[in-house]
């Protein structure tokens, strides 16, 4: 991704381009009638393919899913995250959900705090979960609070040590920290003043739009940006006294007004990338070890205890920009990366490089477009997910790589390690998040700007446990069910 002279003028490479649907339509105008006809025909063909894929998926929803909720978004969201568990009942649990509204400027951009009712496993009736209207909102998702955000919300990350604290990235150099409960609920009306972040983290010299991570063990924040830097902060001394502090520090060219906010500088600035840093991730067991990926196709490992230079730099981790990274919470040796080359790589940090370039344990290839998000499953160590611009969330199990798995006559069509594809989105899936409180439940969000409906789609889904449970256990249960069905049939008269 090429750099521009102004830190705020460069368009983002992911998500909805700046400007309204009207602008997007004007950009597609073709002066020649013949060319217009060709463009229309190509668009109709693509739409027909998307419709077929979607309809085929919806037909098998009652078979493949234990539960699914579809929530139409007027405006797309580039990020979605599960928040804390609020309450539980016999058939459902209530939980926080974080998302955003990326608008065209007619109304403000917002950070949305919602409540989500998550139906518990084996409660929803199979015949009901596919009976939804994709153009309506789900009764399971309700807005709790709206924060008027100073710019588009590109990333949301929650602080594990304090359930009320989240961080956001927008089109500016700063990281914004929000106390969700302390922030007032706002109405997103044209001309409304932006909400003031409770804490502003400074240190980047250029826009930091996507790369953002919160440490699992301590209140540390990590960020990467167009300045090719990775920046580390500690907010340990600030999270209990966020509201009410003030500081007049203001970063040059920033869209964030910090006159009413606390502002703190970095604990460390780390140099090693030669292009935009796209994602960062802490080692799950350390506040000082972390990794980063970027448009230089590199994966870099860092250790703040020994300085600001890379510990290990993996050149050519992929053959294109690397968009995302995740560090296994189960085994700190394993790191996932996702790339514009459509692939996901799993690296072992004990053996990262061979002949001077990246040497992954395995390369997972099934996506048909750039990969935007990867994340390990919190429930099973060998399982992880990936989402991409092809509109799919793929679920993988690296323990199945190399195994011969019977899938009938279509077995040759499946990539090694792939055992589930969620195809419920019509356009690029920009983010997804496993639910730590309800294993195997996932929230995913797509930016549907290129679809006729526009806006976005949020889906909360849980695959059937018959898909991921041990084979012998599943077969035993099915045999018992078969016997039960047979016993319920008509009996011969004596």
UniProtKB/TrEMBL annotation:
Coiled coil: none annotated. Residues 1-39 are annotated as: Disordered. It comes from the Eukaryota. SMART domains: WD40. Keywords: Chromatin regulator, Repeat, WD repeat. Residues 11-21 have a biased composition (Basic residues). Residues 52-119 form the Histone-binding protein RBBP4-like N-terminal domain. InterPro entries: Histone-bd_RBBP4-like_N, WD40/YVTN_repeat-like_dom_sf, WD40_repeat_dom_sf, WD40_rpt, WD_repeat_RBAP46/RBAP48/MSI1. It holds the Pfam family WD40. GO terms for biological process: chromatin organization. Residues 23-39 have a biased composition (Basic and acidic residues). WD repeats lie at residues 270-312, 315-348, 364-399. The keyword Repeat applies. The keyword Repeat applies. Belongs to the WD repeat RBAP46/RBAP48/MSI1 family. PANTHER family: WD40 REPEAT FAMILY (PTHR22850). This is Histone-binding protein RBBP4-like N-terminal domain-containing protein. It comes from Lactuca saligna.
């Amino acid at each position: 991704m090429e750099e521009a002279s102004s830190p705020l003028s460069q368009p983002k490479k992911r998500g909805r381009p700046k400007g309204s649907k009207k602008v997007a339509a004007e950009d597609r105008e073709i002066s020649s009638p013949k060319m217009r006809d060709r463009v229309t025909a190509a668009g109709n063909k693509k739409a027909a393919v998307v419709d077929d894929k979607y309809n085929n998926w919806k037909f098998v929803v009652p078979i493949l899913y234990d539960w699914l909720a579809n929530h139409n978004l007027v405006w797309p969201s580039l990020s979605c995250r599960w928040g804390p568990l609020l309450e539980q009942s016999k058939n459902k649990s209530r939980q926080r959900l974080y998302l955003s509204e990326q608008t065209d400027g007619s109304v403000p951009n917002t950070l949305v705090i919602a409540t989500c009712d998550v139906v518990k496993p084996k409660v929803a009736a199979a015949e009901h979960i596919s009976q939804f209207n994709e153009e309506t909102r789900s009764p399971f998702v309700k807005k709790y609070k709206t924060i008027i955000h100073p710019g588009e919300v590109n990333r949301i990350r929650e602080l594990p040590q304090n359930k009320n604290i989240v961080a956001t990235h927008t089109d500016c150099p700063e990281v914004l920290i929000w106390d969700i409960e302390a922030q007032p609920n706002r109405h997103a009306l044209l001309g409304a003043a932006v909400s003031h972040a409770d804490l502003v983290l400074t240190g980047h010299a250029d826009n930091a739009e996507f790369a953002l991570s919160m440490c699992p063990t301590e209140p540390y924040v990590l960020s990467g940006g167009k300045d090719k830097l990775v920046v580390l902060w500690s907010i340990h001394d600030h999270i209990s006294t966020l509201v009410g502090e003030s500081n007049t520090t203001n970063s040059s060219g920033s869209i964030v007004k910090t006159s009413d906010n606390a502002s703190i500088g970095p604990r460390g600035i780390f140099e090693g990338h030669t292009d935009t840093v796209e994602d960062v991730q802490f080692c799950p067991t350390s506040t000082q070890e972390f990794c980063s990926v970027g448009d230089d196709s590199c994966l870099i490992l860092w250790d703040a205890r020994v300085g600001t230079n890379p510990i290990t730099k993996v050149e050519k981790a992929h053959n294109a920009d690397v968009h995302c990274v995740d560090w296994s919470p189960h085994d700190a040796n394993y790191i996932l990366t996702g790339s514009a080359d459509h692939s996901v790589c799993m690296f072992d940090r004990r053996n990262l490089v061979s002949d001077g370039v990246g040497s992954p344990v395995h390369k997972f290839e099934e996506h048909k477009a750039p990969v935007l998000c990867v994340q390990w499953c919190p429930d099973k160590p060998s399982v992880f997910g990936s989402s991409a611009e092809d509109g799919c969330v793929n679920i993988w199990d690296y323990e199945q790589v190399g195994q011969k798995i019977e899938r009938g006559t279509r077995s040759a069509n499946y990539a090694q390690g792939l055992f589930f594809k969620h195809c419920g989105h019509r356009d690029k899936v920009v983010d997804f998040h496993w639910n730590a409180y309800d294993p195997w439940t996932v929230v995913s969000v797509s930016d549907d700007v290129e679809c006729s409906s526009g806006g976005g789609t949020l889906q909360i889904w849980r695959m059937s446990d018959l898909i991921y449970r041990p084979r012998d256990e599943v077969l035993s249960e099915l045999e018992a069910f078969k016997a039960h069905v047979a016993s319920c049939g008509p009996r011969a008269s004596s």
